[in-house]
Amino acid sequence: MSPDAAIEALEREAREELVHGILPFWSGPAVDAETGGFVGWVGPDGRPDPEAPRGGVLNARILWAFSAAHRGGSTTAAMAARAADVFTGRFLDPEHGGVYWTVDRAGRPVDDRKHVYAQAFGVYALAEHHRATGAASSLQAALALFEQVERRARDPEHGGYREAFARDWTPLDDARLGEGDLDVAKSENTHLHVLEAYTTLLRAAPGPEVEAALRSLVELFLDRIIDPAGHVLPFFDRDWTVRSRAVSFGHDIETAWLLADATDALGDAALGTRSRDAALLLTDTVLREGLDREHGGVFYEVRDGMVDREKEWWTQAEAVVGFLHAYQDTARPELLAAALDTWAFLRTHLVDREAGEWRRRVDRDGTPQPGHETVGPWKGPYHNTRACLEIMARARTLTTADRP
């Protein structure tokens, strides 16, 4: 099959999965018909728990997904409007500003801390909703969150952002996102999602303050976060002293294409050249060290020298986009092959055709693992929706004449 035919087939499959798999699940089984919101948990048995707390990150991701899908022509504005009403009405703190971590079914705060990770997703989702629908209220809310992050979390001495705060923006001692994280002042993961949020905000509302903040983030990734060995460094002290060298292949390749996207939004040719080189370094390292050439897909991580060869849904989604982005940039056939092979693995083993969503995690050979949720605080329609939309958009530009 020719490259053009393979890319056209990839685009068709991505569109089919988005329109007939992912979006119907999130506009159907994931909706809490009684409260008008979205359920916070669907367990391994496929049954929603209507009383489970609802996550600010999950609901921002739902808003982003419906908004981006609408802007991409794959759904109507109604679900995006519903998600915007839920997010702004239940997750934004009217007293202190910012996004709550979790609320209950009625919208009352359960965990009212202000993690910058959640604020970033709020900016990302609201800015995307404005881009998709022109909603002025969403842009206003996104800019208000941007101002809070810049005023409360930016480190004026060392650069970057502190991780977590109490409801009134008092710094917290424990800033971990999850049990597997280190309790440190700064993380690559939080900064990555601030980067993507500010990229979208700059496109929604160009202005010098957002541009300066995004430029500073790009430079931090180039100067501090990306290791010359070809991986992103995950955890740091406040002064950027490295606290861990654990490898996340998903974060490596997600950073690669999001960094390139950020410099594209900035329109800075010199910074773009540096970002391009860094993105290719990260992608080539994942190609060399993370791609499973026996079974397909991309391994999860390397921690304490041990490779976790199991496959997570989000890692595969980001890998397809990252490999496809690098192929657009270089026309190297091995990168297209990696994108196609990774898509084939996830489409065969991670897409749950019965449930309509994607499985969270499978064994190296694709055998489904029991016991994982379909919906949860970290399991939503963000990575897979974005992967489908990115494939669709990039496929339209990947003609033989357009390639380098």
Structural account:
The structure is a single chain. This protein is mainly α. Helix content is 53%, strand content 7%. It is built from 12 helices and 12 strands. The protein has helices at residues 3-26, 56-71, 77-90, 116-133, 136-153, 188-204, 208-225, 249-266, 269-290, 313-330, 333-349, 382-397, and strands at 54-55, 102-103, 109-111, 114-115, 164-165, 186-187, 235-236, 247-248, 301-303, 306-308, 311-312, 361-362. The strands form 5 sheets. The chain has a 3-stranded antiparallel sheet. A 3-stranded antiparallel sheet has the order 8-9-10. A hairpin with a 5-residue loop joins strand 2 and strand 3 (109-111). Helix 6 (188-204) runs antiparallel to helix 7 (208-225). The longest helix is centred in the first third of the chain and has 24 residues, at 3-26. It is globular and about 60 Å long. Mean pLDDT is 96; it is low at 400-404.
- The residue fraction in helices comes out at 40-55%
* Physical arrangement of strands within the biggest beta sheet: 1-2-3
| Distinct helical segment count | 12
Quick one: biggest sheet?
3 strands, antiparallel
Structural class: mainly alpha
Which whole number gives the mean pLDDT? Answer: 96
User: What's the count of strands?
Assistant: 12
Unreliable residue runs: 400-404
> What is the overall silhouette?
globular
Distance between the termini: 20 Å
Rg estimate, integer Å = 20 Å
Query: What is the strand content?
Result: 5-15%
Helix/strand order: HEHHEEEHHEEHHEEHHEEEHHEH
